[in-house]
Structures are given as structure tokens and as C-alpha cells.
Specification:
Number of helices: 11
Order of helices and strands: HEEEEHHEEHHHEEHHEEEHEEEHHE
CATH topology of the largest domain: Alpha-Beta Plaits
Helix content: 10-25%
CATH architecture of the largest domain: 2-Layer Sandwich
Oligomer: single chain
């Protein structure tokens, strides 16, 4: 009995100590955490939990709901120090007008996005090109025809087509694809959206059946699809791009198992692509051919709906080619409507004009530099390499055809809505020009800010965050080197919320032969 009482007492003491330690951690002041240069910091540059100010509490003692996005938001009182000793204070060196995150996001959301969405839809269908935004000064969207460069610097064209020894003949294909972002849940496969779609039952002898037997299996799968309902059907905005490709190519793998799809870039939900490149291989030499791959993608419902388009011919490439690792640069184009639709009384930032010249000057400062860009990324795993070499960073004003019908902003809570560019009958509505009731007064064109970025790699949400931060700092009159200083500081809370995905287009990828962006080989 005495021993049991002693044990209970010890447990109670440990519990008390644990509770005391937890309370101490909660009330601990914010402290800086050093991080290796070029690696993502854990949870930004700070850890711990700041004490709640008494002014944030109402009469009942509860924390006011608007303090996290209002004047008391922690990001508005940041004091940063870069590794070289440079000091940056919020409201003085960056975010000069103290834009809280939520109003800042609404500043980008409440704009004439329908015209941009319509332009992106036309780019996907091949009816327009990003080069029309700056005729004669901007390259068209496209995948460079180079063979690629391995990470060790070996050029793929110097290697034989077959590099896998005696493991059997492997067919490796390279596909160029354009797709409309809102028609998918993003590039990457996700279990909540794609598991039922890609894991449909296959017959037990599918791995050893002939091509004709697999055709019968596919018919059985279709019957299962009909019985199970929409969980195994392709529907607008409910499947990822990679899962849709896997489902389209599934019959071609024949006796071979299904293979992973490797892409040049993993676009987020809502982001468009005018020149995505992916590679996939198989040992099913009889059925897995470039012609069959193209035909399978064209036969998929996404093609009929205008949600994707195969650009050019599908090409068989060397076994050593990998769409992700052989790429030497990626290119993104962001299009931001300059006309605001926001209510000035609801959001006081609505009347602040976008400044193309100042935005361009700030972005130009990044060109030709290799730096840690984790401050402009989101959800980067701690310790992951976050160094990027920026080859092109510029901004300019352009125009796109105004939309038909009433304009409306995407709305902060409506970024997941069906896009205005997608019609109810399952096709992309891409009618241009006209300037309907909500179009710009007395004009058939919509003014936009265009941001072009080329780098060897991009982190998650880096482009949209960089665009939003550059526009915010330019609109509030910050110094021209503010983006460089924020990058060196490495604090994600100091940068703006990501701009809406509707304006972002994956516009190209290089594989070692661009006359300017590939000079000197892989950077």
C-alpha cells in the first residue's frame, strides 16, 4: 500500500511539473532561432508563443476575434535582423502602410478576374498566347526542345536511348500538356480526391493478360464505375491532373504495373499551365507507344471538356530523361487585373493603385542572384534546400480582352468556386471582347499587371507570394531593394498572403538549350 501511494504521489508530481513547463513555454517571449543559410526555417524565423496584450481582450476577458487580422496582428510589429546585421522594422522598412493579412488578401481578390480567367482558358485551348501580352518582347509559352541535363551536368543527348542494361526494353515518353487550373484540384495526387478514381478494381489476372484481355478488363472497370457512381468518374474541379493522366494511360500499361508521372512543375489548385512537361515510362512495349499515349490523353473526358490539351506530338526519349530532374529552369507568368471591384467602405485598401513601374524595379533587383527564398514560400519542410537562382524577374502593364457579362472578384472564401471561364455545359467559356455590364467603362480591353519570373526552381506558392509582396511594397512606397532584404531576413510573416491562383500560368520549362537562360549550363 505504501509503495502504491508513493507511486501515485510521484505521478502527480510529474504531472504538476509537466503542466508548469507547458505554461512556461506558452508564456515564453518570442526568441530568434538560427538556421543554416539556404534551408527552410522551422515555422518561420521565430518560435514560442507571444503573450496576448491586455488591449486584445474585451470586457469579458475573451480575446477579440478581429485582433488576428486587424491592427494588432503580430506581422505588423515585426522587427527583423538579417544574417549580415541589416535591421528591418514593419511599418518603416516594409509594409509601410501596415496592411493586415486579411484586407491585403481582399485587395487582390476583389478585382476584375473574369477577363484574366477567360484569357487563360483561351491560352489552354491554343486560341491565345502569353506572348500577346508584350508582342515582340515576350517569348511564347512552350517547352524548350532540349534533351535535358542530369544533375551531375551530363547532357542527355550524349547518352544512348537505352541506359538500363538488361532489365528489358523500356519506353520513356515525354508529353507537353496545357490545362485549365480550376478544372482540377492541382497537379499532385491526393487521397481525398483521387484514391477511388485511380484505385478502381482490376481483375486478378490483369498482370498476366494479353492486350485483348485487358480490353475486357477495362469494360468490366467501366461497369464497376457505373455501379459505384461519381466516385470513379472524372468531374470538373474534383480530380488532380496527375490522377487524370494515370487514369487515361491505365489501359496502356497492359501486363506492366502503373508508373509514376514525373512533371516539370507541381502546380497548386487553380493554377493554369500553358506548357507543362511530364515523363512516364513502361515496359509494356506493345501497347505503351507515343501514338497510343497521345490518343489516350485525347480520349479522356478532360480533353472533350477543353480542360486540357496535348501540345504537339508525344515523343519517345532516352531512358535517362526525367521531366523534373533534367529541367534547367521554369517560367511562370502572373496576370493581375489592375481594376479593383472592392468596396472602399468595406476595405480601405481598394482605392490604392497598382504601381507597375515600382513593382518592376523591385523585381529587377532579384535578377541574376542565388538566394534563400523561404520567406516567400509556404509549407516548406524544415531543413529543405530553399535556394533559388532567379534568371528573369520583371513586371509591366498590358491589356487582355474584357469579359462579357458582369465582373466579380474571386472573393476570399470563393477561391474554391467554379471558375467564371467554365460553362455549365462542361466546356470552357472563352468568349472574348465586348466589355459587358461589368466591364471597364467604354473599353473592350482590361488593363493588367504582368509579372514574368524565370528561375532554376520555385518553392511552393513562391510565385504568388512574391507577386503579392512586390505589389504591396510598390503600392506603399518601400525601397527598391525591399524584396532582397526580406529574402535575407527569411521571415514568412513579413511577406504578403499569396495572390489568387487564377492569375498564374506555368508558361515553360527548359532542358539545356535556351540561348539566354541556359548560358553556362545548369546554374
Amino acid at each position: 500500500m505504501a509503495q502504491a501511494q508513493a507511486l501515485a504521489c510521484a505521478r502527480g508530481l510529474r504531472h504538476a511539473r509537466s503542466f508548469t513547463a507547458a505554461r512556461a513555454r506558452r508564456d515564453a517571449p518570442v526568441r530568434p532561432v538560427p538556421a543554416a543559410a539556404g534551408t527552410a526555417r522551422p515555422y518561420g524565423a521565430h518560435e514560442g508563443r507571444a503573450r496576448r496584450m491586455e488591449s486584445e481582450r474585451d470586457a469579458t476577458g475573451a480575446v477579440a476575434k478581429n485582433t488576428l487580422h486587424g491592427a494588432n496582428h503580430p506581422s505588423l510589429s515585426l522587427r527583423l535582423v538579417t544574417p549580415d546585421g541589416d535591421r528591418l522594422d514593419a511599418g518603416v522598412d516594409f509594409n509601410l502602410h501596415a496592411w493586415p493579412p486579411v484586407p491585403c488578401a481582399k485587395y487582390f481578390d476583389d478585382r476584375a478576374w473574369r477577363a484574366v480567367e477567360s484569357f487563360a482558358a483561351r491560352v489552354v485551348l491554343g486560341e491565345a498566347c502569353v506572348s500577346s501580352l508584350a508582342p515582340g518582347e515576350m517569348e511564347p509559352a512552350g517547352v524548350c526542345p532540349g534533351r535535358g541535363v542530369n544533375q551531375d551536368g551530363t547532357r542527355i543527348e550524349t547518352l544512348p536511348m537505352r541506359t538500363k542494361g538488361s532489365r528489358g526494353r523500356r519506353t520513356n515518353v515525354r508529353v507537353h500538356l496545357a490545362y485549365y487550373g480550376p478544372a482540377f484540384t492541382g497537379w499532385a495526387w491526393t487521397p481525398e480526391n483521387d484514391k477511388d478514381y485511380t484505385d478502381c478494381p482490376r481483375s486478378a489476372d490483369a498482370t498476366s493478360a494479353s492486350a485483348s484481355a485487358n480490353a475486357e478488363d477495362d469494360a468490366e472497370d467501366d461497369a464497376v464505375d457505373a455501379a459505384r457512381g461519381s466516385s470513379t468518374e472524372w468531374r470538373y474541379g474534383e480530380r488532380s491532373v496527375s490522377a487524370s493522366i494515370q487514369r487515361a494511360l491505365r489501359p496502356l500499361f497492359s501486363s506492366d504495373k502503373e508508373r509514376l508521372i514525373h512533371s516539370a512543375g507541381r502546380t497548386d489548385k487553380g493554377v493554369h499551365a500553358a506548357a507543362q512537361c511530364f515523363s512516364v515510362w513502361s515496359n509494356a512495349k506493345d501497347t505503351f507507344t507515343p501514338r497510343n499515349v497521345r490518343d489516350a490523353l485525347v480520349a479522356h473526358p478532360a480533353h472533350a471538356a477543353g480542360a486540357w490539351r496535348v501540345v504537339g506530338d508525344v515523343e519517345e526519349v532516352s531512358d535517362a530523361f526525367h521531366a523534373t530532374f533534367c529541367a534547367t529552369w521554369r517560367r511562370y507568368v502572373y496576370i493581375l487585373p489592375m481594376r479593383s471591384l472592392g468596396d472602399e467602405e468595406e476595405n480601405g485598401l481598394s482605392n490604392v493603385a497598382v504601381d507597375p513601374a515600382a513593382t518592376n524595379a523591385m523585381l529587377n533587383a532579384l535578377e541574376g542572384k542565388s538566394m534563400d527564398m523561404s520567406a516567400f514560400a509556404r509549407a516548406t519542410p524544415p531543413g529543405k534546400d530553399s535556394t533559388c537562382f532567379v534568371k528573369v524577374a520583371r513586371a509591366f502593364e498590358a491589356t487582355v480582352p474584357a469579359s462579357k457579362g458582369a465582373e466579380r472578384g474571386v472573393g476570399r472564401g470563393a477561391r474554391r468556386r467554379k471558375s467564371a471561364g467554365f460553362s455549365e455545359d462542361g466546356g470552357l467559356g472563352v468568349g472574348g471582347g465586348g466589355g459587358g455590364d461589368g466591364g471597364p467603362p467604354n473599353s473592350t480591353m482590361e488593363r493588367v499587371l504582368v509579372v514574368e519570373l524565370v528561375a532554376d526552381r520555385f518553392l511552393r506558392k513562391m510565385v504568388r507570394t512574391l507577386v503579392a509582396t512586390a505589389v504591396r511594397e510598390a503600392a506603399t512606397g518601400a525601397r527598391g531593394d525591399v524584396l532582397l532584404r526580406l529574402a535575407r531576413a527569411g521571415e514568412r510573416a513579413a511577406t504578403a498572403p499569396p495572390a489568387p491562383p487564377e492569375g498564374l500560368i506555368f508558361a515553360g520549362v527548359g532542358y539545356g538549350n535556351h540561348p539566354v537562360w541556359d548560358v553556362g549550363g545548369r546554374d
